[in-house]
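Notes from the pairing session

We agreed to fold both candidates in a single pass and log them together. This is the raw record for the first candidate, unedited. Please don't reformat it; downstream parsing expects exactly this layout.

Candidate A
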Amino acid sequence: MCKSITIILSVLMVCANGRYLIKEDYRNPYVFVEDGRDVRVYDLEEALSEDQQELTHANNILRVRRQAHGALSSNPDGTSNVMAKVPLSVNDKNMLSAVGTVSGASGNGGFKAAGGGLAWDNVNGHGASVTGQHIPDFGDQLTAAAKLNVLHNDKHDVTAQAFATRTFPSNPNVPNFDTYGGKVGYTYDDKVGASLGMQHTDLFKKTDYSAMGNLNLFKGRDSSLDFNAGMSKSVSPYIPSSRWEPSAGLSFTKWF
């Protein structure tokens, strides 16, 4: 770890465990820290504080994962979801990645949906994506999504997300239709989180609501295990009665 940092408008320092890029614009000086896996952003005053003993493991930072990673999660029906993300282009503020997903995999070659696309992530926690997926015996979907990091400090994080999906049914008698919605999520100390979401499909006059929570059980440098649980409900004039349905599962993420 470097013991001191000298600032000259723009300075590049090389240390045994990473690279430090310091930038100053007179109004809001900041530091980018690259350790081969992450790009992390620090307020300059915090970065130089003697109380900051370990820059690369600070809790009050925003990060963009630079390496390829995959996630595996379970569903109540016993199937699994798989996601992979591979960076294509990265700089000190932004990352463009290729993403691929398989949902509802049964383990014997069957799945409920599979697709891929492109995702953009910003070091401040913002992002956007364009993805497509195929649903066997149903059709194809094209989705545009965006997220905005509303608040982030050493303990609290609030992110808002929105999406719009166009569905192209394989049945010629069913017209194309749109689904749109959003979600607001809160995380405390990078360990406990909760979210509220809603989506609506005009064709079916159907609105789905969800309230979810998650608890991080383990987090290492290259892996994470989380427990997820919540309730969901669908409301439509075509559904005579509806109730809140519980769900729970585990999700495992691995960075390579």
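Candidate B (folded immediately after A)
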Amino acid sequence: MNRQGFGGAPSSINFSTGITGTAINECPPSDLTEEDLDSLRVELSKTEDEIQTLRQVLLAKEKYAADIRRQLGMSPLSNIKQNLSKGWQEVQTSAPYLTASATLEDISHSTVYVRTRESLSQAGQVTSSALSTMGVVITRRLAEMSTLSHTVSVPTMRNSSTFKSFEDMVGNVKDKVAGSMTNNGDTSGFERRSSRHNT
């Protein structure tokens, strides 16, 4: 079998002996003559030189293209932006994206989605209102306690109705948060609060 050289001229090397995929560091087959081996070495050297020349040409072309882009005012960043924009446009026009978009639109118009959105909105408003009210009450109670602390000793302040009320409110919030997380329906938090009020 004759091999074409890079320039298109047939090579005079005969590969009929069938060099198989052997290890790279393995010795050449013994049935090749010294002349064939020399010819192969020359061919390899020429091929490696051509590869190096092609790399240099490619590098020169890349530099030339970069120079043209710079002259056009296209920075590497704008090139990346352009590629990303083009890629995003391709994604938006792809069949999977269009299908998913249509599905999401159908979901957003479904009654379950609308009800859930409304319920979450109402829950958020109620929670916000409750936290706001609690903040006002805490601020007021702290202000009352600070005026008490200037006039009354600590043991007397602890027995005052303001302190007890504040303590109960903080205990209620703690019990609701901790109770809902650990008790899961256990009413021991309620029992503790009611026992505090009875004493």
